[in-house]
Amino acid sequence: MQIAMIGTGYVGLVSGTCFSEFGFNVICVDKDDAKIEKLKSNIIPIYEPGLEALVERNQTAGRLSFTTDLKDAVSKADIVFIAVGTPTRRGDGHADLSYVYSAAKEIAASMSGYTVVVTKSTVPVGTGKQVFEIIKNENPDLEFDVASNPEFLREGAAINDFMRPDRVVVGTMGKKAKKMLQQIYRPLYLIETPIQFTDLETAELIKYAANAFLAVKISYINQIADLCEQVGADVHDVAKGMGLDKRIGAKFLHPGPGYGGSCFPKDTLALVKTAELMGGQISIVDEVVRYNQERKRSMSDRILSQMQSDVSGKTISILGLAFKPETDDMRDSPALDIIPELISKGANIIAYDPVAMQEASSLLSDKVVFAADSEACIKDADACVIITEWNEFRAITAVRFLELMKGKVIVDLRNVYLPSEMRDVGLNYTSIGRR
After folding, report:
1. What is the CATH T-level fold of the domain 199-435, as seen in this structure?
2. In this structure, what are the phi and psi dihedrals at residue 340, rounded to the nearest 5 degrees?
């Protein structure tokens, strides 16, 4: 079975590499010559634990290759995955499907023999049918099917998510396509992974519905955290009490500064826009989109409050820049809202993140100073703000903060530390939803 993966972004690179680990021959295609040359040399453009070793092993074994020649890759393939970007379209909030449709046209001109074309990208309902029409119009004599196979990969845990997923969702148009997709997912079937086969539209909607639900859950616990602060309750205990109910579950009940990343922001907005396009609404998700943006902006107010609203000339240390640990992804990170606001108030910012500083440097003001490590970041700072809960930050003790910092203000937006331990040494410590 020969697989072509169109797009070597996060989804395409991880998925293509993992399919090759299953034993299939995979050609990953991208238009970026420099990127492809680096991948051929096992230089990975994203930070994802375990991915570099997997790419190197499968290239060495001859199962994984990289090219800019889409026509050659597609002509050899039994299954072609479209894994290109679907960012939010400027101006109206809908998913931008131009890359998907462009790929479909190129694929149509390159296929030879029966081929299954699979949308791996996150796409709105109806996209698969549109891809089918594009290919059919471009080349009416082709024998092919279109399928939908949405990804459910968490950044920082993507390899395990692909190899041992909670479920696999596949939407197909015909029995022949279903049989071929059953074959490439047979390694997961053998470990009893639930594999759900549906029609195209249902598969497309499952991805959006799942991501939007998780975003709702995050925003809900953030609002409960705010209420905890007002009434003197502890959000961690509240979340534990909720999570022990099997109907609710404990995951995604962690308060913080708001969600970010490559999926939740664009997918929630795209779902709202899809509903509007169909003449309906998903008011809960619509409110979550608005609330999450407002929450990220409000985090700077928390910091200013702890500094008596005066940060002019003060040095504020920022620990963590990526939207979550174990990734260098800065897309919609709360840091991109918080840091500019503090700079506008006259603060001097020194920041540290284990892997995201290179990416962050292109997105933040050149006034931001990047530290070599976490201790260098907090040294002589008037205040410290924890934005991303990297594990290495947990090793910084309350005493060490006191020894290194000039001031005593700690604003923990991820609840990394115990309030009693921080306050017992004299630190002015505040967190989310806790006394």
Report:
1. Rossmann fold (3.40.50)
2. -60, -35
Question: How much helix, strand and coil, in percent to the nearest 5, is found in the chain?
Answer: 45, 15, 40
Q: Provide the annotated active-site residues.
A: 263
Nearest-angstrom CA–CA distance, 346 and 349 = 9
* Rounded Cα gap, residues 283 and 270, in angstroms: 13
**Average pLDDT, integer, range 117-126:** 96
Cross-strand partners of 196: 169
- Model confidence pLDDT, tens digit, residues 76-116: 999 999 999 999 998 888 999 999 999 999 999 999 999 99
Structural fold of domain 2-198: Rossmann fold (3.40.50)
Assign 435 a pLDDT band (cuts: 50, 70, 90).
confident
Please report, for residues 65, 257, 312, the alpha-carbon distance to residue 338 in angstroms, rounded to integers and kept in the order given. 41, 10, 15
CB atoms inside a 10 Å sphere around CB 244: 10
Positive or negative, the CA dihedral 356, 357, 359, 365 is positive
**Residue ranges per structural domain of the chain:** 2-198, 199-435
Helix segments in 250-361, DSSP class H: 264-277, 283-306, 335-344, 357-361
Mean pLDDT across the chain, nearest whole number? Answer: 96
The residue-averaged pLDDT of 191-208 equals: 96
pTM (two decimals): 0.93
Q: How many helices (H) and strands (E) does the chain have?
A: 18, 14
Distance CA 385, CA 412 (A): 6
